[in-house]
Amino acid sequence: MRIGIPRESRPGETLVAATAKTAAQLAALGYDVVVEAGAGAAADQPDRAFTDAGVQVVTADEVWGSDVVVKVNAPTEAEIASLRSGATVISLMAPARSPELVAQLAAAGVTGLAMDAVPRISRAQSMDVLSSMANVAGYRAVIEAAHEFGRLFTGQVTAAGKVPPARVFVVGAGVAGLAAIGAAGSLGAIVRAFDVRPEVAEQVESMGAQFVTVDMEQEVSSDGYAKEMTAEQEAATAAMYDEEARAADIVITTALIPGRPAPQLVTAETVAAMKPGSVVVDMAAANGGNVAATVTDQRVVTDNGVTVLGYTDLAGRLAAQTSQLYGTNVVNLLKLLTPGKDGVLTLDTDDVIQRGIAVTLARGDSAEVMWPPPP
Ligand code: NAD
């Protein structure tokens, strides 16, 4: 079978679904791999890197005519129309929030596999693009904050006097939050963090940060994700957010609830009470944001001099590495889908990972909607 790697069509996208190295690894699974000219240009993967790795660089039409198309962003309607009936497309799809995409894939008779629907079980960790991207993005959020912040992160004792360390407050200590805690701590900041899952306290503290507690209990579903908070729990945390944000120089928010809009946690009043020169990075901006002042993909400076960053491309700002990690996650998934290492993709819907990512399944000229998977 032929695997095609297209150039991402989303404006400003820097990522590519395969690097020269991972494309060669796909070829080693028996596939004929082709890459669209210029696909990796923004991720330090020039066409030459692919040809040097023995991967053919071809036109968009040739890529979209492949048996399997692997990309980063969900295919657009026009891209779905250029897929062959019976083909497979693998990408991020946010299927829970994209009923139109699911319907378009089904109508086109295409198998759609969502990279972002890989179940959160240990066996699937090597295929988990959300973790790969959140990890890079959490680090980059700190770099963006440090760039905006007009002071040092680390405390210093100089001949001209003492410089206090910056105080960083991280909301949500999942993959992105822990990466942010690590990066901020390594720059010398005092880091405090909060998560509704109390079991992360140990991880936070093992990284040298302080875990902020609120007197409440939070339910966590069996897949390890947080559930939405009740109104009472929200009220209990509101005062804590206000107090922590006022005391912080940098606030990094990462709180997400899968398939739901991001919880609004930091109010406009709290941002208005923050110190001038402080910085907020709202990593939940793509899902509506955790902070009232956030504008998606924008840098906003409030009247009281707080910079609020709503960038949704944080992982893409380290494009070479994120593409390499994404590509490696794809290779690991394709290893699972190619048990014979014979270049033939098979989908075993009895397997929890394969069932989990199956959004549509081509059968004849149409495709069956498989989303959502059974709980
Ligand atoms: P996520 O991106 O869905 O959420 C980020 C964090 O926000 C989570 O820690 C969540 O608890 C927190 N959060 C949600 N609502 C909040 C609120 N109102 N206030 C404060 N915090 C809130 O989650 P994630 O980072 O992708 O991962 C969640 C968990 O799953 C982590 O423990 C992670 O280690 C685990 N995980 C397991 C696997 C695996 O086993 N394959 C893979 C990835 C992640």
Proportion of strand residues: 15-25%
Number of domains: 2
Element-by-element helix/strand order: EHEHEHEHEHEHEEEHEHEHEHEEEHHEE
Mean pLDDT: 95
Estimated helix fraction: 25-40%
Number of strands: 17
- Under CATH at level 1, the class of the largest domain stands as Alpha Beta
Characterize the overall form: globular
Main sheet makeup = 8 strands, mixed
Segments where pLDDT lies below 50 for 5+ residues? none
- Terminal-residue CA separation: 32 Å
- Structural class, from secondary structure content? alpha/beta
Radius of gyration: 22 Å
CATH superfamily of the largest domain: NAD(P)-binding Rossmann-like Domain
* CATH 2nd-level architecture of the largest domain: 3-Layer(aba) Sandwich
Strand order of the largest sheet: 3-2-1-4-5-6-16-17
Identify every distinct bound molecule in the structure, by name, code or SMILES: nicotinamide-adenine-dinucleotide
